[in-house]
Design goal:
Number of strands: 13
Distance between the termini: 48 Å
CATH class of one domain: Alpha Beta
Order of helices and strands: EHEEHEHEHEEHEEEHEEHEHHHH
CATH topology of one domain: Rossmann fold
CATH architecture of one domain: 3-Layer(aba) Sandwich
Strand order of the largest sheet: 3-2-1-4-5-6-11
Largest sheet: 7 strands, parallel
Shape: globular
Length: about 325
């Protein structure tokens, strides 16, 4: 079976490609906007990179040629007006897919809290899923909270805050609840749904342990420097100020930091965790995942220092 992946150069896309290459016999069509954006580290006889421009239906049609399943990972978070862009791209893809030989779309989304005013980010994630499904194609929508992986902007934001600020004064909305999950587990769920029958627009919420965002920060600190961070919440803390502070401490661009910070106002927890149903086993405990990620971040730092030393020596 040929599996097409839109958004293949992102964090989830790259890890999904690695898993598909090593774990099964599917052929993979991976998207890139420009040829120089191809990830040269991902090489396989079963992997084909194709350029695509989601603003043009003909380009989408050419990209999808031969594919039977589409994994949709597109998110324009770094662009201004990302909500309208994401909705437009989803509709254009849906219009092409319903005329092609695609059997279903697997879409990676966020957990959408009920009965709450949604942040721009979560509202966009929900509307993207609705736009894809509005064209009559079956859509399996995987909804997850924070993805814990070293390439994840959400994880890196939490990691650097916890690492660099043992004592934190934070907004009260860090008492909101979340259900983090390992990036590897989320990717496994996507892979499992490629081979599963999907009826209509089906929602698959996934997640691991439920906790407050501030507790996640403390646990991340423990995995990083051996002790939990001391965190004190205050009632008033503007999101605009928070995002500037996050950018300064973590290096995550302000546009992304602000959008992610806005989402922290909402609880991000599953009402029906379907991870075990999809994969056949429980997700990794958050403490174990944070420890693994911290070790990987340490290795990456050591490799950067070693590489810098070699360049300086030459």
């Amino acid at each position: 079976m040929q599996v097409a992946i839109l958004g293949a150069t992102g964090c989830v896309g790259r890890n999904l490609i690695k898993k598909l290459i090593t774990s099964n016999e599917h052929d993979i069509i991976a998207s890139c906007r420009y040829e120089n954006k191809i990830d040269k580290s991902l090489i396989s006889q079963r992997l084909e990179w194709r350029t695509v421009n989601l603003e043009y239906s003909e380009s989408i049609k050419e990209f999808l040629q031969g594919a039977e399943v589409l994994v949709y990972l597109v998110h324009s978070l770094q662009s201004s007006g990302f909500e309208s862009l994401d909705k437009m791209y989803a509709h254009k893809v849906g219009e092409v897919v319903c005329k092609a030989d695609i059997k279903k779309i697997i879409y990676m989304s966020g957990i959408i809290p009920r009965h709450e005013k949604l942040s721009h980010h979560l509202k966009s994630r929900m509307e993207t899923g609705e736009a894809l499904a509005s064209h009559g194609i079956s859509v399996g929508e995987v909804r997850a909270s924070i993805l814990l992986g070293t390439c994840s902007a959400s994880y890196r934001m939490i990691y650097y805050l916890a690492k660099r600020l043992p004592l934190m004064i934070t907004p009260k909305w860090l008492n909101s609840l979340c259900a983090p999950i390992a990036l590897d587990d989320a990717v496994e769920a996507l892979e499992a749904l490629i081979n599963r029958e999907i009826e209509g627009h089906e929602i698959f919420e996934i997640g691991s342990d439920i906790m407050r965002y501030c507790d996640l920060l403390s646990l991340c600190g423990k995995s990083t420097h051996g002790y939990e961070n001391a965190i004190f919440t205050v009632p008033f803390f503007a999101i605009s100020l928070s995002s500037l502070w996050i950018e300064f401490i973590t290096g995550v661009p302000n546009s992304i930091a602000r959008t992610l910070a806005e989402s922290l106002v909402n609880d991000s927890v599953y009402s029906n965790n379907r991870f075990k149903e999809i994969t056949g086993h429980d997700p990794k405990p958050v403490k174990d995942v944070l420890k693994e990620c911290a070790e990987q971040m340490k290795k990456e730092r050591e490799e950067r220092i070693k590489s810098f030393g070699k360049k300086k020596g030459s």
